[in-house]
Write a structure and sequence with these properties.
The complex is a heterodimer of chains A (304) and B (499).
Chain A (H helix, E strand, L loop, with lengths): L2 H8 L1 H29 L2 E3 L6 E3 L3 H8 L1 H32 L6 H9 L6 H12 L10 H6 L15 H26 L3 H9 L4 H30 L2 H6 L13 H6 L9 H25 L9
Chain B lengths: L1 H24 L52 E7 L3 H17 L3 E7 L3 H10 L8 E5 L3 H5 L4 E2 L1 H7 L9 H6 L1 E2 L2 E2 L2 E6 L1 E6 H6 L11 H14 L4 E5 L6 H13 L5 H5 L12 H15 L3 E3 L8 H4 L8 E7 L3 H9 L11 E5 L12 E8 L4 H14 L2 H11 L14 H7 L5 H6 L16 H16 L4 H23 L1
Parallel strand pairs in B: 1-2, 1-3, 9-10, 9-11
Antiparallel strand pairs in B: 3-13, 4-13, 5-6, 7-13, 8-11, 8-12
Helix pairs in contact in B: 2-15, 9-18, 18-19
The chains are: A mainly alpha (304), B alpha/beta (499).
């Protein structure tokens, strides 16, 4: 046994003591529940989930192949594809606008970040006042309805074509404060000298934005993208309050999370099927995060 | 070498992910509720009510007992926990009643625990171990079968029998809703039912008598036609397809009104239902009529009613209003205060009319919504007796009078109507009384009480989807048939897991 190996073995007890507590927590609250969920996913249970019987691992394949699950995955992907890029672009835009040294800029920063302090429930109710097709604000602006009759009939939240985008807009709005704050913090971390020397070198405003600001914001943007994506995949409150997963029968806003937990889900009291869907969502999110870190992570400049 | 294995592994992970994505985008499979059911028993194809009950509940004598006298021998105060789902003004009224009870005697002390709503109460109850259950729980009308199957309750019927408690003045329909397989499982507490809301101004403008709203489907059609033709309103009726409103009750309410069974085994009341019957000719005829009301421009479909208010708000549409809609009686207080705020131009509080829910068949009739009180069996005779004492307080004539006047729920017993404050409320504003009156006489058959189904909430979501599809123009019989098949596979799976 070489000295190095010996030394390594000597460290084992200490390492065990140091790692033990977090290992216990990890096993008790992450690995064990995950294992149980995977096992539950091939079972069918009574209403209390006290008596379960296995129906075979084929249940996962069946759930994967089912119309409801596939539709929910597709809805979720669309929801993320709308909320993440638009939310990011608006967040960057507002943050760059507010990143100026001028009087009263604090007022605008407060306004731009105000949605952080708005709960999902309050935000959704406000959007409901705007979007309600009979007495809502938008429904009673004459010229707007002439251009977009869908606002009135059947209503933006009731039309299978516009429901998802409408929920997405409310979600983007609600998350904008968070995106704004994170990106503003990122902007303030960019040294002024770099901007100034780019200016001296003759770079215009847009050139400085694309060649200096954006690359240096890389880590911030990666973080924001990952957070916004996982928020999009976990969106629940706005869907429950605005559409209940509908409009039926297309279930245009039933995301995977809503399929598992929503009040109008037809697997609502079926613990086995819910577990199967949840495990599949976990696998998808795991793959997605890996892709994001692998694909985007490489292009991000973390400084020297 | 090392690099390559990592890369290969990463690629393998990527391929697996793509496989999921591709299969997820690929052609449709079956419904999720049919997943992994290869071992589940096939749906029973008999299904007629003459079939011998497969799983009959034990008679009262074999269920947990109730001894009301046990409370007399208790030393000290019995502390009870009551889980409920009442919010806002409803919770305030419940708290006031509970405080009154706690202050009125020293034997029992009730602690209220608000669980957030019916759904949350039910979910938490089902997921709790027997050690962490409350002593009393308020559960909605669609949870009867589910709670029976938990075997965790003392049926209130046992207490009624042991206490020789007189229920002769109770609303029979309200009691019957919680009566299956010969056992009174729970005590109705807060009862509501769907009623017709209408704009009397529009009726007058159309030359109709504002005091006689439509009660039959034929009247609904002719009056809607008059309203639309006269231009008094753009639509006669605003319909919705929400599972908690239109989509969930048109079929169940109207089958009960016609005295037609909605599911087998006498609506699940002689034994658990194994099959729904709503895709029969009655169902096809009813939904064909509903569909043609929309097609003919007499009714307007507001959709899912996700906000819970869309159908009612259609009455206030400044541009294309409807003259009538059907909504729960529990909304009346809110409707009147919203109208009082001037939401509908030119329409005052007294211009809103309330009538029985229109439907097929003769006399008005409705089945009950709302919730009931369940006594939890924790093996302690004293606690059971104490729970029963509080249940008796909550359904006493005086409490029900106070509760109904404060909330808009209808009293569960007729003697409450002779007592203030509800006596005055009903005399001053008869609109509040409509929901009470339409519950009507005792049901002559289980068919007119409504169905009890294991996965009742999920099946309501299925009928809501079917009604939405039909109101958008789909063929009625095939849509109902598909919905019935989906409901039957939910039932089969439920029975296989809970039987």
């Amino acid at each position: 046994m070489s000295g190095a190996t010996k030394r390594r073995w000597r460290d084992v007890p200490l390492a065990a003591v140091m790692l033990g507590p977090s290992l216990v927590v990890l096993v008790a609250f992450v690995l064990y529940p995950l294992g149980r969920a995977v096992w539950l996913g091939q079972q069918r249970c009574n209403v209390q989930a006290t008596k379960c019987r296995s129906v075979g691992w084929g249940q996962y394949t069946d759930v994967l192949m089912s119309n409801e699950f596939q539709s929910a995955v597709w809805v979720t992907v669309k929801f993320a594809l709308i909320t993440v890029p638009v939310g990011l672009a608006l967040g960057i835009g507002l943050a760059v606008l507010a990143d100026k040294h001028m009087r009263h800029i604090g007022f605008f920063r407060t306004v731009f970040s105000s949605t952080v302090a708005t709960s999902v429930a309050v935000a959704s109710l406000m959007w409901l006042f705007l979007l309600q097709p009979s007495v809502g604000v938008l429904a009673n602006i004459g010229w707007l309805n002439d251009i977009f009759p869908v606002i009135k009939e059947p209503g933006l939240l009731n039309d299978k074509g516009t429901a998802l985008s409408s929920v997405a807009i409310s979600s983007i709005w609600a998350n904008l404060g968070f995106t704004f704050i994170i990106i503003t913090a990122g902007l303030q971390g960019i040294p002024r000298e770099l901007q100034e020397s780019a200016f001296v070198d003759g770079a215009g405003g847009w050139r400085r934005f694309t060649n200096v600001t954006l690359p240096l914001l890389g880590p911030t943007l990666l973080f924001t993208t990952v957070v916004l994506t996982s928020r999009a995949f976990q969106a629940y409150g706005e869907i429950d309050l605005l559409t209940n997963g509908g409009p039926v029968p297309q279930q245009s806003t039933t995301t995977v999370t809503y399929l598992i937990y929503g009040s109008s889900s037809i697997i609502k009291s079926n613990e086995g099927l819910k577990a199967a869907v949840a495990v599949l969502l976990f696998v998808i999110l795991l793959g997605l995060s890996a892709l994001q870190f692998r694909g985007l992570g490489k292009r991000v400049h973390y400084g020297s | 070498m090392n690099m390559r294995t990592t890369k290969t592994r990463k690629n393998a992970a990527f391929v697996a992910l793509m496989a999921i994505a591709v299969s997820a985008c690929g052609g449709g499979g079956g419904s999720i509720v049919d997943s992994g059911t290869t071992e589940a028993p096939a749906t029973s194809d008999g299904g007629s009510s003459t079939e011998a009950p497969s799983t009959s509940a034990a008679p009262l004598s074999e269920l947990p007992p109730c001894d009301p006298t046990a409370l007399d021998g208790a030393d000290g105060t019995v502390e009870l926990t009551f889980w409920h789902g009442m919010n806002g003004e409803l919770e305030k009224s419940l708290v006031a009643l509970t405080d009154e009870y706690n202050a009125s005697q020293t034997k029992v002390k009730i602690s209220l625990e608000n669980q957030g709503g019916y759904e949350q109460t039910l979910d938490k109850y089902l997921q709790s171990g027997s050690g962490s259950l409350p002593d009393l729980v308020q559960a909605p009308e669609y949870a009867v079968q589910v709670l029976n199957d938990t075997d965790s309750n003392v049926p209130v019927g046992a207490c009624i029998e042991a206490d020789a408690y007189d229920t002769s003045d109770f609303q029979a329909k309200a009691l019957d809703q919680y009566f299956t397989e010969g056992v009174q499982w729970a005590m109705p507490f807060n009862v509501s039912d769907p009623v017709l809301y209408y704009n009397k101004k529009a009726f007058e403008a159309a030359g109709l008598d504002p005091e006689t709203p439509p009660t039959s489907l034929e009247e609904l059609r002719t009056m809607s036609q008059t309203i639309v033709d006269s231009g008094a309103a753009a639509f006669g009726l605003a319909l919705d397809t929400g599972a908690d409103s239109g989509g969930g009750w048109f079929l169940e309410q109207w089958f009960a009104k016609l005295g037609e069974p909605f599911s087998d085994n006498d609506n699940g009341r002689t034994a658990p239902s194994t099959k729904v019957l709503f895709d029969n000719q009655t169902g096809v005829d009813l939904l064909t009529e509903l569909q043609s009301l929309v097609d003919d421009g007499l009714a307007y479909n507001v959709g899912d009613n996700a906000s819970g208010q869309d159908a009612l708000l259609k009455l206030a549409d400044p541009d294309k209003p409807a003259a009538m809609t059907i909504a729960t009686s529990a909304a009346l207080g809110t409707v009147l205060s919203v109208v009082a705020a001037g939401t509908i131009a030119g329409v005052g509080v007294n211009d809103i009319g309330v009538g029985p829910m229109p439907g097929p068949g003769g006399a008005p009739g409705a089945i009950v919504g709302g919730a009931s009180l369940w006594i939890v069996d924790n093996g302690d005779a004293v606690k059971t007796a104490a729970s029963w004492d509080f249940v008796k307080f909550l359904v006493s004539a005086q409490t029900q009078s106070t509760w109904a006047a404060a909330t808009g729920y209808v009293p569960v017993r007729s003697t409450a109507l002779d007592l203030d404050p509800v006596k005055t409320t009903y005399a001053e504003d008869p609109r509040f009384r409509v929901a009470y009156d339409q519950l009507g006489e005792a049901a002559d058959s289980p068919a007119s009480v409504g169905a009890i189904l294991g996965p009742q909430r999920e099946i309501r979501n299925i009928t809501a989807q079917a009604i939405a599809t039909i109101l958008q123009g789909a063929q009625v019989d095939t849509t109902l048939k598909a919905a019935a098949n989906a409901a039957n596979s939910l039932l089969a799976d439920y029975l296989a897991s809970n039987g």
